[in-house]
Amino acid sequence: MKNLLILFCSLLLSGVFGETDDGNMSVKEGDSVTLKIKPQDINRAEDLRWRFNDTIIAKIDLEGKDKPPVYPDEKRFRDRLKLERENGSLTITHITSEHSGVYQLEIRRSQSTYKTFRVSVIAITEPSQMSHWMITGPVLAVAVVLLLVGVLYVIYKRYKKRDEMLEYGKKVKKKKMRLPYI
Fold first, then answer.
1. Right CATH for 17-122 from 3.30.450.20, 3.30.1360.120, 2.60.40.10, 3.40.1190.10
2. What is the pLDDT of residues 128-167, one digit of tens each?
3. Beta partners for residue 107, in sequence order
């Protein structure tokens, strides 16, 4: 009984009973990603069915050599999918955040097998429309204008004080001239 339990657990852990996690992928928004399959994985397969969150998005009949791949989900993946007949790999172009999720390949033959991929799409944030200098420039311009006004004010006060001193000097000189000599 103990040996049977160990055999059951080892078969379960090795993936014989169904799904195996074949990859976690992170992709930047706008890039392309290829969910790769080894050619030997699809030997003797009748057809392939790719699913995204349990919805068939691409399928191909491998026995009908002239039949092209079919893409039933036209809305979400419009013109973004390419299914390779030779190896079963699925390429998603111009990926967006709505394409994040679980992708599963069903390899159909006498006994179906599954390959599972988890794709995470990293959203790229747009840089702010205002650059650093669009903010710093006006602040710098205001600072320069204020500095210039301050310098002009100091110069004006000095000249005014000088003029007042000259006027005062002239008044004193006139007073001295009016005084009689003793």
1. 2.60.40.10
2. 666 777 778 888 999 999 999 999 999 999 999 988 888 8
3. 48, 113
